[in-house]
Each structure stands twice: as structure tokens, then as C-alpha cells.
């Protein structure tokens, strides 16, 4: 039997964590205290996917507007079809046709039928529609021409294949409420009420500044000793994924002037993200610049990867302030830190509740080792075994610089900070990278 994470507490390899460091939750709470919901804006409905509705949506008419046919067939008075079968059909004269989008030009006379298309309004006096399939329509069509007489093969009941007016939405009804996240269904409903635009909480613009003398921008020729700036792109993708608008700024070199210039351009965003320069080596330049432009806190977060984290507030020339998240430079550290902190900040600005990443409990195919009392986020591939249970397999090298194992991962398996190891066959909580975040 696999063991649950909490059963590890009696194990010999239990760890004492470093209380000087912040837990992920403490760091997140501090960071979120600097953010607020952004103002409301009107956007074209088609662009509102994933945004939070800022107003109740009330119907001003019925949908559908009139009783209409659910099938292509014949509108009839159901009592006229009494006893109809294929062997002894009821034959009715056809007096006209109602195409979709047009109103019937006459009422149904008892003892007759009117040809009707799906979605077309049902003529007065008709109370049911007999689908073509239950008539001799198809045989007649094969022998050419429209029927003047139609044979009904099935007895119908009142309201058969008739959709009532207001069956979907009634005039005056509140169809959607402020605070709802707009998905495809909600967007369709808004369009069905005839609206072209909708009031939603604005998307945050996130400026991404990369720092480092070693960086090349993708598209530049490859140079020995240099690496491409991947962080700006992975972070931009995460910003888009969580509903924000990424703005990739240039690369700041490891000098005060260069970083100052880049930050100045980035400051009109709702959040400035920098990558690198928060570990010991080259921190000084970044710290000097950031403290001269605002306030900065440097934290060690009890997590692996992504221990070093900077967070602060930059002051714009006009005196307003913009939060700054300083991510570590290592590509996986930057991504894991953004998942834990950037995602929550974007959700808060967009007016969404602070919910945890969706997670599953999975049996580990590989161990997760924790040698220094930090919460470990291990890159894994989650899959279902033959019995339908979740299992998680390491995607390989777990070094914080190895981005390919992040690309192969669909989840981050967690070893808590006070546990030395989750062994093969034991259960770990796995935060899923690719599941929707709003099903909770
Ligand atoms: P640093 O925090 O500046 O010491 O950087 C830590 C590691 O991350 C170094 O190996 C850097 O080369 C790497 N790194 C920094 N910025 C980026 C970036 N934008 N894209 C990819 N790797 C980076
Ligand atoms: Mg650097």
C-alpha cells in the first residue's frame, strides 16, 4: 500500500527546515498584499475569454423569441395524427412552407400540414412537428418534387419537436452574474443576447525585463559563450496563459545605466518582472538600481528550485507605484517561481479568487529527495496506470538550469519541506501544470 504524504512524519528522514526562510505561502501572502483588482473596461465579446465579468447580464427579450421547430418536418395539429403508423399512415394536404428566419404566412387549418424547417416559427394552431423521418418525405423526394400530400407514419403528442418561446432565456432574467469567469459558453450567451462588447476586469500588462551580459535575443546569431534569453519567452507564455498581456522588454546588461533604462521603459505596466541577478554574485547592481527607484525586499523562499526571490515596488516618475517581481535567472527556477507567485498576482489583478493550482495525488515511480529542508517541486509526467490511478514519473535531470525536463513535465510533484524523501511507491501531491484553474 502506498503511503500518503502525512504518514511520513514518523520516518527517520524527517527534516528540520530553516525557519529564517519564508514558506511559499508566506512569500505569496506578502506579495499579494501589494496587488489589487484592476479597473473595468469594455472589450469586444470575442476577446473576453478568461476575463471576469464586471456586470450582471440581464436578458431584455426571450430566447428563442417564438415557439419554433426543433426538426425539419411538418407542423401539424397533433390530434390529426391519432393512430398513425407506417402501415396505416394519416395523409394530410400540405398548404405551405416556413423557412428558418421567416414568419408563417398563414395559420394551420385543421386536417392539413405545413412544411417547416428547424428553427422556423411554428404556425398558429399547430402544436407539434412531425420530423421528415416519420413521414414519406424521403421516398417522395426520391421520386422528385415537393409533396402536395404527406403521409404521417407516427402518432405525435402536443409539443413534440416544438421549442417553447423563452425556453432558453426569459426576458428580465439575470443570465450571468458579475464575478463570473467568461468561458466559451458564457461568451456564446452574451452574443445570443445581441451584445458586441462586455464590461470586464481589465487584463494586467506584465513587462518582462531580462538581465545578463551573457544573453542573446532569439533571432540573433549564435555566439560561443552566450545563451539565448529563454526566460522572457517562457514567462510571457505563462502571463498569456493566466490571462495577462505580456510585454517583452529588451535585455538589460549588468550595469546600472542599462538596467535603469530598461526599468524606466517597463514601468507603465501593471507588474514588472525581472529575471536573474537576484542570486549572490551579481546582485549588487540590481539591488542598487531597485532601491534607488523604489523599495525592494530580498527573500529566501523555502523552496527548490527558486530559493532566491526579490519583490518590491518601483516608483514611476509621476509618483505612482508598480509592483516588481524579481525572478531567479535559472530557467526552471524562473518558471516555478512565476507559477507560485506571478500566477496568483495576475489572478488577483483580474478579479479571480486565489485558488491553489489543481492537484492530484499520484504514486511516485521515482523518488523525490529533499536534502536541505525546502519544499521540492519535482518535474514529473503524470499518467494513469491500468487501474485508472495516477502515477508520476520524473522527467529527468532536476537541475534548475535544465529546461527540457520542464518542457516534458505536465506536473510538479511536491516533497514537503520537513520530509527528507518521498520514495518510489509512495504518494505525492502533484500540482498539474496543464489543467484549467477555475474548476474548484
Ligand atoms: P543569475 O541569477 O544572473 O546568476 O543567473 C542564473 C543562471 O540563469 C545563469 O546560468 C544565467 O545564465 C541563467 N539565465 C539568466 N537569465 C536568463 C535568461 N533570460 N534566459 C535563460 N537563462 C538565463
Ligand atoms: Mg546574471
UniProtKB/TrEMBL annotation:
The keyword Metal-binding is annotated on this UniProt entry: yes
Membrane keyword on record: no
A single BP term in Gene Ontology: Mo-molybdopterin cofactor biosynthetic process
Pathway assignment: Cofactor biosynthesis; molybdopterin biosynthesis
Keywords: Magnesium, Metal-binding, Molybdenum, Molybdenum cofactor biosynthesis, Transferase
Cofactor or coenzyme needed: Mg(2+)
Gene3D superfamilies assigned to the protein according to its UniProt record, in alphabetical order: MoaB/Mog-like domain (3.40.980.10), MoeA, C-terminal, domain IV (2.40.340.10), Molybdopterin biosynthesis moea protein, domain 2 (3.90.105.10), Molybdopterin biosynthesis moea protein, domain 3 (2.170.190.11)
Cited SMART domains: MoCF_biosynth (SM00852)
Family: Belongs to the MoeA family.
Name of this chain's protein: Molybdopterin molybdenumtransferase
Amino acid at each position: 500500500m502506498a503511503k500518503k504524504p502525512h504518514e511520513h512524519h514518523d520516518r527517520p528522514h524527517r527534516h528540520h527546515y530553516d525557519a529564517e526562510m519564508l514558506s511559499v505561502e508566506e512569500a505569496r501572502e506578502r506579495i499579494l498584499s501589494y496587488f489589487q483588482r484592476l479597473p473595468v473596461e469594455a472589450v469586444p465579446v470575442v476577446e473576453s475569454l478568461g476575463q471576469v465579468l464586471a456586470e450582471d447580464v440581464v436578458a431584455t427579450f426571450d430566447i428563442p423569441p417564438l415557439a419554433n421547430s426543433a426538426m425539419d418536418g411538418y407542423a401539424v395539429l397533433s390530434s390529426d395524427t391519432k393512430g398513425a403508423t407506417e402501415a396505416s399512415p394519416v395523409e394530410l394536404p400540405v398548404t405551405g412552407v416556413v423557412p428558418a428566419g421567416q414568419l408563417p404566412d398563414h395559420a394551420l387549418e385543421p386536417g392539413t400540414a405545413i412544411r417547416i424547417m428547424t428553427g422556423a416559427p411554428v404556425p398558429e394552431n399547430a402544436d407539434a412537428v412531425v420530423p421528415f423521418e416519420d413521414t414519406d418525405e424521403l421516398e417522395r423526394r426520391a421520386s422528385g418534387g415537393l409533396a402536395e400530400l404527406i403521409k404521417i407514419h407516427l402518432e405525435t403528442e402536443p409539443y413534440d419537436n416544438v421549442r417553447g418561446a423563452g425556453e432558453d432565456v426569459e426576458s428580465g432574467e439575470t443570465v450571468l452574474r458579475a464575478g463570473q469567469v467568461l468561458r466559451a459558453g458564457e461568451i456564446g450567451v452574451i452574443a445570443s443576447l445581441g451584445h458586441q462588447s462586455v464590461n470586464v476586469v481589465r487584463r494586467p500588462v506584465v513587462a518582462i525585463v531580462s538581465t545578463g551580459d551573457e544573453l542573446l535575443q532569439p533571432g540573433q546569431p549564435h555566439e560561443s559563450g552566450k545563451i539565448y534569453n529563454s526566460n522572457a519567452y517562457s514567462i510571457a507564455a505563462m502571463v498569456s496563459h493566466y490571462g495577462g498581456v505580456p510585454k517583452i522588454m529588451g535585455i538589460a546588461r549588468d550595469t546600472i545605466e542599462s538596467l535603469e533604462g530598461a526599468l524606466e521603459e517597463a514601468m507603465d505596466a501593471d507588474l514588472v518582472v525581472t529575471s536573474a541577478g537576484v542570486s549572490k554574485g551579481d546582485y549588487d547592481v540590481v539591488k542598487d538600481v531597485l532601491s534607488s527607484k523604489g523599495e525592494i525586499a530580498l527573500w529566501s523562499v523555502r523552496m527548490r528550485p527558486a530559493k532566491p526571490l526579490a519583490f518590491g515596488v518601483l516608483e514611476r516618475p509621476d509618483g505612482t507605484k508598480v509592483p516588481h517581481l524579481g525572478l531567479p535567472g535559472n530557467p526552471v527556477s524562473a518558471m516555478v517561481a512565476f507559477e507560485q507567485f506571478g500566477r496568483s498576482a495576475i489572478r488577483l489583478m483580474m478579479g479571480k479568487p486565489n485558488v491553489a493550482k489543481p492537484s492530484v495525488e499520484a504514486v511516485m515511480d521515482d523518488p523525490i529527495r529533499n536534502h536541505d529542508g525546502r519544499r521540492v517541486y519535482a518535474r514529473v509526467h503524470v499518467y494513469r496506470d491500468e487501474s485508472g490511478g495516477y502515477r508520476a514519473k520524473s522527467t529527468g535531470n532536476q537541475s534548475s538550469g535544465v529546461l527540457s525536463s520542464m518542457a516534458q513535465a505536465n506536473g510538479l510533484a511536491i516533497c514537503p519541506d520537513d520530509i527528507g524523501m518521498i520514495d518510489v511507491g509512495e504518494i505525492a501531491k502533484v500540482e498539474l501544470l496543464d489543467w484549467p484553474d477555475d474548476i474548484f
